[in-house]
Amino acid sequence: GFPRTLGQAEALDRICELDLVISLNIPFETLKDRLSARWVHPASGRVYNMDFNPPHVQGVDDLTGEPLVQREDDKPEAVAARLRKYKDAAKPVIELYKSRGILHSFSGTETNKIWPYVYTLLSSKIPPVLSDDEN
Hints:
Number of helices: 4
Order of helices and strands: HEHEEHEH
CATH class of the domain at 31-118: Alpha Beta
Largest sheet: 2 strands, parallel
Radius of gyration: 19 Å
Structural class: alpha+beta
CATH topology of the domain at 31-118: Rossmann fold
Strand order of the largest sheet: 1-4
Distance between the termini: 34 Å
Number of strands: 4
């Protein structure tokens, strides 16, 4: 997400005025498990997730058959440290937008269960885009 730090939020304020901020509250363990399950094909940047988008053959890229690697920052210990650091940095950002009355928070562990609520909020704030046929 963006902004991640108060400095980024202040820089964003200088170029635009936000009227809606969405915060997704996902349990620490869920985030750690998802990020730790990520493997990549270095040459192409293709990303696999061993839980919900695994390669056809474990450990190898679907297209090239080359080995997949897990980035150092995706290993469980590194992910846990990244999440702790993010939480500390993001707290003042969340408080800033909360104090402005523009923060909308959603909690859960599954995208398909959170998305309908986010979509409803966005639909109430943004007029639908009509195709040329609909005009």
